[in-house]
Amino acid sequence: MTATVSELDERVLMRAATAKDATMARAVLERANLIVHICPDIEDLVREMARGVGVLVLAEEAIGGDKVEALKAGLTAQGEWSDVPVIVLARQGADSRAITHIMDEFANVTVIERPMRMTSFVSAIRTALRARRRQYELRGLLAGLREADQRKTEFLATLAHELRNPLAPMSSALTLLTLKKPTPEDAVKYYQLMGRQVDHMVRLVDDLLEVSRITRGKIELRKEPVVLDAVIQDAVELSRPLFERSAHTLKVDLAGEALVLHGDAVRLTQVFSNLLNNAAKYTPPGGQVSIVARASGRQVLVEVTDNGAGIEAPMLASIFEMFVQVSDTSRAAQGGLGIGLTLVKALVELHGGRVSASSAGLGHGATFSVWLPLSNAAANAQRRPLPYHEGGSPLRERAILVVDDNVDAANALGELLSSLGASVLIAYGGEEALGVARTNDFDAAVLDLGMPGLDGFELARRLRAEQPARKRTFIALTGWSQQGYGERISKAGFDHHLLKPVSLADLLRVLQGN
Q: Which is nearest to 485 in space by CA: 456, 459, 514, 443?
């Protein structure tokens, strides 16, 4: 019978004093259900050790002369994780030079004097094998750490690449605006270019933050009855620019009936937008992508299918793991960190559903299937209107204090709010903001949290304390979103917390919500 790898790792490799001793020992150990391999000499033992070993059993007579050096070379080749247990069967009487030598050379050595009880012999081997199994656990852990480290290294390289990609056209556009000094009409295309690249960078950072929150179990869903059709239509709108750039044909086939889910509409939109983006990125220009939704019992099945690069069978099992990208097709993809599908799987499972991938292989496209439980509740499918319309002055007669130690950030936000009709006060630090507030009235304050000296937390508390009866809106603006910040922000007196770069729609929503 050919030994399996696990059997090789559990073997007792023995070099006995005589053939008779070897036969007797084998019989005893095999009755104890141990795997034994008798080695005729040290050279054979070293060769077998390279194939797999649980414990070495050596007669004292077998380790004289230069045999210890050969044994040492074999043990050294085992790897840093390995410390093979060695049991030496010593002759009765005083310790020999060979025994002393092997105990000096190796730490994991047990000496048993002959003659010996067979139960003691078997017990010593079993104890040694238990210790050896712990080494195998360490070997697996180290292998996992090496793989994780390699994946992390590849991810960081990918992240650097993906962040440089949008920075390059932004830098070029800024240089052109400086050198050419175009008219406002001619400059529009450069502004649009920079806007698209900023949006791309924001998506990358948002994905990283989402993964961090999900893996730490800190994400919260705002569940309510939602109509699946509305969710998918929103996802299609988010993904449409990618499809238009690649000239893909997108077919949307939704059920005729209203399929209602109990879920977070924003997160579900994120799920299907990620799947559509994934299909678009891995499909050559002019490809075909479809999204189909159907009721299936008490569940809804949504399938996103493309005729793109496809997925090899071995990758299907790991495609949803963190930072995994299909190596043979990643060059065809238009960027990404390899975390989009991880987000999809986590968000679907948080909704009580499941997701799977299937493909006939490279070049044959892929299908991603999402199952979600249906709800019995009725849903309000109306979308909320945008809080402003182009060309209006939604913040007319509002006085807003903007505080940020980043001068460019403060000035840009102030100018944006001014263009929407607000009367803007700007300060570049906490102490300066206190001075501005003592001589000017304001209705709302947008405060950066991470300022040196008087930070946003303390500034909000002091501004509140100076006029406690005055109704004002305080908005915290920060690049941090860690768990625990929400409670600290609330205690400081803030009404809202927005992440940088702030969305104009979100900012207007909180400013107009008083």
A: 456
Distance separating alpha carbons of residues 60 and 344, to the nearest angstrom:
62
Q: Please tell me the distance from the alpha carbon of residue 354 to that of residue 464, in angstroms, as a whole number.
A: 47
Tens digit of each residue's pLDDT (9 = 90 or more) over 320-362:
876 565 444 444 444 455 677 888 888 899 999 999 999 998 8
> Residue 392's pLDDT band (boundaries 50, 70, 90)?
low
Burial-class residue 163 by CB neighbours within 10 Å (0-12, 13-18, 19+).
Answer: middle
Q: How many CB atoms lie within 10 A of CB 85?
A: 22
Residue among 410, 408, 314 at smallest CA distance from 357? 314
Q: Are 497 and 489 in contact (CB under 8 A)?
A: yes
Tell the residue number behind the tokens 């309000």, with chain if given: 380
The Cα–Cα gap between 290 and 321 comes to 24
- The answer to whether residues 510 and 498 touch, using CB atoms and an 8 Å cutoff, is yes
Nearest residue to 153 via CA among 276, 270, 323, 26: 323
Element (H, E) at 145: helix 118-180
- Amino acid, single-letter form, for residue 430: G
134-150 confidence digits (pLDDT tens): 999 888 888 888 877 77
pTM of the model: 0.48
How does pLDDT run across 168-191, given as a tens digit for each residue?
678 878 888 888 888 888 888 888
- What is the full DSSP assignment across 45-111? HHHHHHH--SEEEEEGGGG-TTHHHHHHHHHHTT-TT----EEEEEPSSSPPHHHHHHHHH-SSEEE
DSSP 424: E
Q: How many CA atoms lie within 13 A of 412 on its CB side?
A: 9
Q: Please, what's the b/e burial string for 296-327 (b: 16 or more CB within 10 A of its CB; e: otherwise)?
A: eeebbbbbbbbbbbbbeeebeeebbebbbbbe
Complete domains list, the chain, with CATH? 5-141 (3.40.50.2300), 149-215 (1.10.287.130), 224-373 (3.30.565.10), 399-511 (3.40.50.2300)
Cα R_g (the chain), whole angstroms:
34
Residue 262 β-bridge partners:
225
64: amino acid identity, one letter: G
Contacts for 342 with CB less than 8 Å, ≥ 6 apart: 211, 214, 320, 321, 322, 323
Give dist(CA 394, CA 398) in Å, integer.
Answer: 9
For 134-157, give one letter per residue: b (16+ CB within 10 A) or e.
ebeeebeeeeeeeeeeeeeeebee
Q: Which residues sit opposite 448 in a β-bridge?
A: 477
Fill in the amino acid letter for 479.
G
**Please, are residues 135 and 81 in contact by the beta-carbon 8 Å criterion?**
yes
3-state secondary structure 130-142: HHHHHHHHHHHHH
Sorted by sequence, the CB contacts under 8 Å of residue 392 that are 6+ apart come out as: 420, 421
Phi-psi label, residue 43: left if phi above 0, alpha if psi -120 to 50, beta otherwise: alpha
